[in-house]
Structure prediction request, 242 residues.
Amino acid sequence: MEKSVSLFKFNNGVKDGLPIGLGYLSVSFAFGVKASILQIPLIITLLISMTNLTSAGQLAGLEIIATLGTFAEIILTQIIINSRYFLMSLTLSQKTDDSFSLKKRFICSAFITDEIFAVALSKPGKISVKYFLGLALLPYIGWASGTLLGAVAGSLLPEFIVNALGVALYAMFIAIIVPPATKERGVLFAVVLSAGISCALYFVPVFSALSSGFAIIITALVVSLITALIFPIKTEEEVLDA
Prediction:
């Protein structure tokens, strides 16, 4: 009986993770193509996706690797870009049942992404290890296999097609940014400010020696600080009073 219940929870997680896995397949395909353009070896590209589940973090790390950046740049960049996962993990830990031991929490935390977090959090009641592993299975397979397909395609397709596909990852980020930017002034301000600072760090001669990794770090920190000061998130009490 217990085995059948565990299998049901796992299968339920797999079903909920199917749409995420299909979405990750296309995003990671673009990442694989981008890695091919930057001449990152296929095995390294695949290893990056098999040990990370973060599109923005991987893309930033890819640029640093391609420009021979330092380990410090990669570490700081990943901490800043992926710091939201600290809060997601803390929130999700309140929904886990007794099947989550400390060891299993560490293992499952590696598979937390925005989409997996959202689906798991919206699930009524507590979630089990079996359900979470089922939920993460197809997204993980989709992310890794999409990366492999993209890297292989990038090495086989003509150069002009590869260059066109290389833009796809940036187009996906734009598609993510535009809807909230049209509704929230704070998001729009952060996007415009990020673009302005990035251009300044790239084109202004005094910053020419600055590596891409530290440019990302500086931009993220400055934009986060200024946006938080100008557009602070209102508390529940402030929203009710307004």
